[in-house]
Amino acid sequence: MPKTILGIDPGLAACGFGLVSSSAGQLGSIEYGCLATKKQDGTLAERISCLNSGIGDLIKKYQPDCLAVEDIYFAKNVRSALDVAKVCGSFIAVGRQYDLETFFYTPL
Q: Are strands 3-9 and 14-23 parallel, antiparallel or unpaired?
């Protein structure tokens, strides 16, 4: 049975995504891109809300079977790491809204 996976490289300023299909051991690219926010777009909460809307739109359009999110690894800028952790947490909530399981994968 074919599966569609929404992969997410979380970030506050730039959040990469890619949709892939898997069927009979073959992988195929469906869509990919980047959701972006800027400090001028508002508060941290407003920017995260914007990213959540973008991920929600992708879920509605492509109806993936699950989310695969790149996990946070040690970063030199702790503040940035904390903001990305908040983004990751919000994606778990978005996935739950659509009854999707969220898997985290380390980039290393």
A: antiparallel
Stated pTM of the model: 0.91
Burial 13-48 (b: 16+ CB within 10 A, else e): eebebebbbeeeeeeeeeeeeebbbeeeeeeeeebb
Tokens of 92: 């778990």
Question: What does the CA dihedral 14, 94, 22, 15 come to, rounded to 10 degrees?
Answer: 0
User: What is the domain-level CATH number for residue 77?
Assistant: 3.30.420.10
Range of the domain at 40: 3-105
Q: Please tell me the total count of domains within the chain.
A: 1
Q: pLDDT tens digits for 60-81?
A: 999 999 999 999 876 678 888 8
Q: Which of 65, 72, 62, 73 is nearest to 33 (CA)?
A: 62
Q: Beginning with the edge strand found earlier in the chain, give each strand of the sheet holding 66-70 in spatial order.
A: 26-36, 14-23, 3-9, 66-70, 101-105
